[in-house]
Structure prediction request, 1460 residues.
Amino acid sequence: MDLRYSKADEEFRAELRAWLEKEVPAHGSPPAISDWAKRRSYDTGWQRKLYEAGYAGINWPAEYGGRDASLTEQLVYYEEIARARAPYIGVNFVGILHGGPTLIAEGTPEQKARHVPYILNGEQIWCQGFSEPGAGSDLAALQTRAEKRGDHYLVNGQKIWCSFAHAADYCELLVRTDPDAPKHRGISWLILPMDADGIEIRPLRTLAGEGEFSEVFLNDVKVPIENRVGEENDGWRVTNVTLRFERGTAFASEMIQLQQYVRDLIDLSKRVERNGAPAWKDPELRRKIGHFSAELDALWAMVKLSVCQSSKTGVPGLGGSAIKLFYSELYQRIAEFGIELLGRARLSREDVAGLPSQALLQRAMQSLSLTIAAGSSQIQRNIISERILGLPKEPRP
Amino acid sequence: MDLRYSKADEEFRAELRAWLEKEVPAHGSPPAISDWAKRRSYDTGWQRKLYEAGYAGINWPAEYGGRDASLTEQLVYYEEIARARAPYIGVNFVGILHGGPTLIAEGTPEQKARHVPYILNGEQIWCQGFSEPGAGSDLAALQTRAEKRGDHYLVNGQKIWCSFAHAADYCELLVRTDPDAPKHRGISWLILPMDADGIEIRPLRTLAGEGEFSEVFLNDVKVPIENRVGEENDGWRVTNVTLRFERGTAFASEMIQLQQYVRDLIDLSKRVERNGAPAWKDPELRRKIGHFSAELDALWAMVKLSVCQSSKTGVPGLGGSAIKLFYSELYQRIAEFGIELLGRARLSREDVAGLPSQALLQRAMQSLSLTIAAGSSQIQRNIISERILGLPKEPRP
Amino acid sequence: MDFQLSEDQESLQAGVRSFCDGHFPVETLRELEYRGYDAALWAELAELGVFNLRLAEAEGGIGLGTADAVIVFAELGRRLVPGPLVWTHLAAELVPGAGDGKTVVGGLDLCGAEREPLLVEHLADLDRLIVLRPDSVSCVDASALNAEPIEVPLDPLTPVHHLAELPEGESLGGTELAERLRLAGCTLASAQLLGLAEASHELAVEYAKGRKQFGRAIGSFQAVKHILADMFVRLEVARAAVYAAGATLDDPGVGDAARAAGSAKLVAGEAALQNARACIQVHGGMGYTWEVPVHYYLKRSWVLASVFGGAEEHAEALARCVELDARAPGTSL
Amino acid sequence: MDFQLSEDQESLQAGVRSFCDGHFPVETLRELEYRGYDAALWAELAELGVFNLRLAEAEGGIGLGTADAVIVFAELGRRLVPGPLVWTHLAAELVPGAGDGKTVVGGLDLCGAEREPLLVEHLADLDRLIVLRPDSVSCVDASALNAEPIEVPLDPLTPVHHLAELPEGESLGGTELAERLRLAGCTLASAQLLGLAEASHELAVEYAKGRKQFGRAIGSFQAVKHILADMFVRLEVARAAVYAAGATLDDPGVGDAARAAGSAKLVAGEAALQNARACIQVHGGMGYTWEVPVHYYLKRSWVLASVFGGAEEHAEALARCVELDARAPGTSL
Prediction:
């Protein structure tokens, strides 16, 4: 039970920190949230720099150009990225964390050659086409149809919650290739070029007013058969290769940012007045912050425990659901606390009177998605109770 | 939307208060919790006084000797009973609140004549024989068997959670008279004399160390057929007449006691020291108390709303489940707060250093039953969602 | 005692509900985004009696009480009706033209812990601004105010200006008036929060009945059912508290009005906020969109939670009330 | 970094678990009610190394670290092993005979906010009593103490005496020692709380699998499942925090030991308490009996929550830690 990073880890940290201290300020501030062209170039520019410095694909195998870092090096990486407030992975998210790893695991040599290096260096942007209006928590109920027509599939249907669709070159697309099979057994995984004919992208406005997600309508879109990853009708298995990445260390940076956020709330509480004194003087407020801190430290220890477990067994720990569940609900509690602290300034989404309304409200609104996306809290509780605790499944209707 | 008690209500209050101010101190302190003989005589003695003064059976029809009070008079009654810290209804509980009303609603003239007046004046004590080890939340799964043998039923089985069995003369007993019928349709409701042969009572120790409940074992117990209330196999309906009383104004006094309890916690918080000052100086503590108070006031308003609804429609409001659910969980939160306030004194179940450990720990332990008994919180949520909100039932296995 | 809605109150409720359902469908709210106020709709609200409801008949009002007003404001809250409704209603007795909707009145409550920054709701549409201070009530000409518009307000239906300075204004009264207005404002805001809690609950129940996943309506899953049951409980707790506050303001003989109003604000504020959050969760991804109106409910709840005293302030004040009340009067329970 | 249990630690855990399962079945606990301590069992615990675990080998101890001790104390907590375990363990380096179980040592922590009344656990069985004050550690002859026995303690396995007065005693050290002992005591109590949270969780899961209502195991109902899932999360959060505290006390280079210990106490205390409550709820009526051991878990959790600093005290101290830490060091994260 050793929490000490190795000498090699600390050397990696020192080197990375020095690099980040130079490069982060040099990369400038992120563009406006709605300016997709600039966002793409900002995010891919950063990815390119990571790539050139050897920090891209931190968990990717070396043979695919990745860093192949140990799990503890990955923790160091996420700690330093968060500490340096480096650019968010942004439009590279789907490619680096889902698409690329899936191709590495399941793609043909040609598919790998065509995509993997360019995802890594930021040249290819991917989006995700999994969810549908009728297939959310029940993802396997997806209905987007792909009919085989000679050398291609003819795809018709509608996807929703496609992140970065506007900026993307390719989409990891789940389609139904056998409508008669049981629902998990008729799905295939396709590489959809986003410039194909018949694709219509409609931005989906989130409750925070942003357009990071889109609905994608597919009308007679032709996708070459060679773009299928894995066997026909085996896409559910291929998908689960991908889904697994969503429950690993992907939240690591966000967790450390949340620790920074709590420290920022302390600063704020010293500037905000309550009952004629700085809010920080209020013991209830301080205890809440102390409580958040205890939970965050425990969460980070939980990540380390889980990572060390994975590192030993080679498979992600089952505890990922517990981490995700706890993290997302804790985040929401902290974000709500931030709004309370703002007082009347909460009425403005712009900073006002020197108070950071913009960031705090943004966080509070975005946090609402955390208990929904990537397996809702209810789904996580089902997973924990059935897969970890071995409780009997509910009777099916 | 008028919250003002009528002149008649206030006259009733004044008269009752004057009576209580005289009689409560005169009745003395309650005996030890384990002394059943003394408890029976203390509780029935009080019931007798209520009866003689015309305050027994506050909600019973006048033709059965009850007060037939309006619902608002009942509220006044519960308020004053709580305010005067009058003796708890104690061993009379089942007879006055369940057995008696069921007989009034469903009994034969003979059954009524034999029991109703004597329940009212405290001469007959009843206990409840509903739950079984295998039939808790799923009460209708009860297995205690009653076979018809000429002029009597031969009863075999086991009951649990029989309150006051030691002190009781009769038991309202649910038995299965048709094992082949669907589970709700083979149940009958019997009057079981507790001196019948073949009854064994084993006290059931609660986590608070008390013996208010018992297990009752029934071995070839003969119950005359004339002791059946309602038709054979119609006992589930008869039972529901009874169950309804558990969700009405039965908690009213306890709610007001809980308001008193919060005031007592304020007093305590002024005597307990935290960080070198009385705990009451801590704003977090005060806000918690203020918060409890808001919830308790809202709860009491909810009772009034529900009572006025019932009074208009003649049936108990569906809101009873919401009241029960909210009340029981709020009670537990307040009781837990009481333990925190005790600090180290919590280690003792006797009062120590002038701190009221005994009462606070008793309350905290007893409060644990509130979310379980008379329909657990989970059952209440099912009732609310299915019967009030009209959500579809779960698929049956 | 008849704590039920009277027949008149039931018709009042039905009337306002039907008006709001007709006049404030979600499409209208979308059109009102970043404006909030519409002169024609305002005139109709005035016509309905929203502003002069509690004004004596002799003064041209309807002469109803706070118990009636909470019913009306719960319906307004339920349909997210925007505008400085509470302040104009409060001003009916003080500012000529407010009661009949000719004068649009906003306000600033500077009595509580949450005063700064000075953000005024709907300022662009206001004629007059009422300012509550612990010892005074004053009225300011809204057009003369030096204020910066906030380009992106939290609630798209509640535009906000940041006030650089606040002129003295005309005095309307002292401590007593300030307390009375604040109490009524607190109660009416609580009623709006009650309406929001109800709207979130209704929307979630409806969605849970219709939305299918895993071959069943999601409302048949116990996990979802129990979320909805808890929403119902919060809603009914809030309803009881808000109705009680309304009745108590009308008849102080039945209890302490400040305590009733504070309790209502506290529990209705929580009900609105928690129900909006729960409604989002029940909706899954759709709850995170702008399209489904639950985000308006959440944002409005956040706004209303900050007016006429926040949760901490009321909780503290209530504790002091209970402390003073420690000698347990019988009738006020 | 290898935050997993090492192979040695796994065998240690398995060994202590098997010992506790064998020696402290619920029947034994029933026999120990209102005594708690049994000399023969105490000797076996000493034999096992519970008291001299962290004592250097040169001093006759086993020479293991706090990371190992938390594993052992979690197992002791899980099986409700009674007695002044933590204090005697802490005393191993200070009081002759404590490490090998010959001298039974209890203690009083007078450093925190919750000091009064002076209640001493297991006093009747103590030889010596250690008293922690912010600036001193002293040791008192337990037999000479003027104390009233409490006839009915909260936890039937934790008998208590009320101390009328506390003699000066023999000085063992100052501030530094007091801080070190309190930190270790806090961490080991957290470990016991972790064990209690685990015991409640295990018991509830087992019951939910076996108990049938409505024709199904109650563990197949989503409402019950989700209670159990939340218990699991609380348990795993507590486990991570307690293990981290153990590792940090051994190697201050990986973080702030006080912060780690305080966090562990806070989250493990909540996990134990909430899991015990949830376990009772899952058991329904049976959870309310004396027969099912969950009430012991709840009562012990209440007891342990009050030792080595309560939740409020730790929360406040942690806030101060984070405040000082506000310049965000990289490695300590």
Notes: Chain A is about 45% helix and 15% strand. Chain A touches chain D through 63 residues (CB under 8 Å). Chain A has three domains: 7-88, 127-232, 251-388. The first helix of chain A runs from residue 7 to 27.
